[in-house]
Write a structure and sequence with these properties.
The protein is an alpha+beta fold and 299 residues long. It has 2 domains: 113 residues, 3-Layer(aba) Sandwich (Aminopeptidase); 157 residues, Gcn5-related N-acetyltransferase (GNAT) (Aminopeptidase, 3-Layer(aba) Sandwich), CATH 3.40.630. The protein has 7 helices and 12 strands. It has a 12-stranded mixed beta sheet, sandwiched between helices. The longest helix has 17 residues. The chain is elongated and about 65 Å long. The protein binds coenzyme A. The site of coenzyme A has 20 residues, from β4, α1 and α2. Coenzyme A binds next to β4, α1 and α2.
Length: 299
């Protein structure tokens, strides 16, 4: 007999193998909802979502022997119900297309009235040992102006200069904010380009798993010298190889499918050295407000 119910935070560790490494440390956060499927108290499936007006379905998984028995459907239904009860008025599901489970997931979403999925990001994976052979990294050049400083080498002055530059109205769009998710910024290979007391650009990365760095933001402020982006990317990747090496052998990068400039950069300078390139998709659903539960006099 399978039970499906929200998972109390203290029980999350026993279910964490049923989600991605990225989300495991977040399962006990207050805005994260876990809905568990169990058989005799043993973990069988898990759905993970982030609450909010626009909630996000982060992952859904059923242990392989238990698949195709409707458990995924029950997990999704219970998750949507709980998110709606918690105040969400819509939910987004983001996933990587072309995986073995994609047909099952897309059927689940379709059965639960999500709108047809749309392409969202290009998800690139790489091994740093291969990436360092790309001319961009192997033949990396010093910037024409200024010098590259590591995140862990930045003094208070450079940090303040970066903060000031990024806070200047119109200088740095929200998606490029360099201090995003600061606790997980990888200090060993995040880098900034400094010139004459100002910061001209940065490449900021996050450690998303013990063995993986995500290349999160490569950004140049207006007026940066030509080639500054090449210099930052080459230096950052080289530092991962030099300083983290076999301990952190993997890299990943998500690019918006609308970001033509970065897609061209990637296609021309790094594509042959990547391990895989996949498309992530997003499917959205508007939630109908939940009827009030037990004790509601209107029922
Ligand atoms: C996606 C997943 C959670 C579905 O769980 P499940 O318990 O098998 O789902 P259900 O039994 O409720 O089936 C859902 C639908 O998918 C269909 N389906 C299941 N496996 C399928 C497959 N391999 N190919 C095509 N359709 C499949 C089912 O037939 C059902 O559709 P139907 O009702 O029209 O018959 C499960 O495959 C899984 O854990 N995959 C690995 C984790 C993963 O990749 N998750 C997605 C990204 S987070």
């Amino acid at each position: 007999m399978i039970a499906v119910a929200p998972l109390p935070a203290q029980d999350a560790p026993a279910w964490e193998h049923l989600t991605f490494p990225l989300f495991r440390p977040q399962l006990q956060e207050p805005d994260v909802l876990c809905v568990a499927a169990s058989c005799g108290g043993q973990p069988v499936g898990l759905a993970v979502a982030r609450r909010g007006r626009t909630a996000q379905l982060l992952s859904i998984a059923v242990d392989s022997p238990w698949r195709k028995q409707g458990i995924g459907g029950r997990l999704l239904a219970a998750t949507l119900e709980q998110l709606s009860a918690d105040g969400a008025d819509s939910v987004e599901a983001v996933y990587i297309a072309g995986q073995p489970s994609t047909p099952a997931l897309e059927r689940l979403l379709q059965h639960h009235d999500f709108a047809p999925p749309q392409p969202r990001m290009l998800v690139c994976r790489a091994l740093i040992a291969t990436l360092v052979e790309a001319p961009l990294v192997a033949g990396r050049r010093q910037p024409r102006r200024g010098r590259i400083v590591g995140w862990d080498e930045m003094g208070a002055h450079t940090r303040e200069a970066l903060h000031e530059e990024a806070s200047r109205p119109g200088a740095c769009p929200d998606w490029a904010w360099p201090f995003f998710d600061e606790a997980r910024i990888e200090p060993a290979n995040s880098v900034v380009l400094e010139h004459a007391g100002r910061v001209q650009g940065f490449m900021v990365n996050h450690r998303i798993a013990a063995d993986t760095v995500r290349y999160s933001r490569l950004f140049l402020f207006p007026g940066a010298a030509r080639g500054a982006g090449f210099a930052l990317a080459g230096e950052s990747l080289w530092r991962q190889h030099e300083r983290l090496g076999a301990r952190v052998p993997k890299g990943s990068c998500d690019l918006e499918v609308a970001n033509r400039m970065m897609l061209n950069f990637l296609g021309r300078h790094l594509r042959p050295w990547l391990t895989s390139v996949a498309v992530s998709k997003v499917a959205r659903k508007v939630l109908v407000p939940q009827a009030k539960a037990v004790g509601d006099p209107a029922r």
